[in-house]
Amino acid sequence: MLETLVRETGDAPTHAVIWLHGLGADGSDFVPVLPLLGITKPTRFIFPNAPVQPVTVNGGMAMPSWYDIYEMQIERKIDRAGIQASADAVEALIQQQVDAGIARANIFVAGFSQGGAVALYLHESGAELAGVLALSTYSPNLDQGEPATGFSVPVSIHHGTQDPVVPESLGQRTHARVRAMGCPVSYQTWPMPHSVVPEQLLAIGKWLNEHSH
Question: Beta-carbon neighbour count of residue 72 at 10 Å?
């Protein structure tokens, strides 16, 4: 089981958000944003730490990473085994919350950058969830041909128009792929680099509240 930080917005949480950080960060990365979200229902936020492992593009240096990154160009080989392993680890966290009494239909998975890629992979694998929040990221399945259809789990995609790490074109392609799957999807851009901004956090909180039934 992944190591996690847990924060709750109220007693006896009825909802949960599993929030995956980006490459080289850790579970504490997004804890400070919680007060800015304006969450209205008692919600358990789970911030897991990615395993520390070598990352090829960083000279093999070991750092918190959800999967290896072999090369930086847009059309690149993807570490599918690593993404699958992280998706399985997140699924175990989801099941842990179900066992604690929170319905799967009340559990969101959010992710920034690498973490968002894992969240989108989990979504396309057919995970039953309340929704997926994909921040400054891309679908790792962009090279896999046309997606299956008939998905119903809502997805909210956010991207910076000045992102030098994950180009916004990847966000646009991800939006098109998720839309082709047939599920409700929204796409918002913000004048920012590879980061988050306060106005965006308000929008994220609004989306979470609207989809917390």
Answer: 9
Query: Residue 75's pLDDT is what?
Result: 66
DSSP 50: P
Low-confidence stretches of the chain (pLDDT beneath 50): none
Query: Could you tell me whether strands 52-55 and 61-64 are parallel, antiparallel, or unpaired per DSSP bridges?
Result: antiparallel
Token pair of 164, please?
């030098």
Please tell me the distance from the alpha carbon of residue 167 to that of residue 134, in angstroms, as a whole number.
Answer: 14
Q: Please write the tens of the pLDDT for every residue from 38-73.
A: 999 999 999 999 999 999 999 999 999 999 999 876
Task: Identify whether the C-beta of residue 67 lies closer than 8 Å to the C-beta of residue 114.
Answer: yes
Count other Cβ atoms within 10 Å, centred on residue 95: 12
Which residue has 């309340």 as its token pair?
A: 130
- What tokens appear for 30 in the block? 């997004």
pTM: 0.97
Strands (E), 92-137: 107-112, 131-135
By annotation, the residues acting in catalysis are: 113, 163, 194
Instruction: Go through the domains of the chain in sequence order and give each one's CATH number.
Output: 4-210 (3.40.50.1820)
Phi, psi of 199 (to 5 degrees): -60, -35
Is the torsion defined by CA of 203, 208, 211, 213 positive or negative? negative
Residue 130 has which token pair? 């309340």
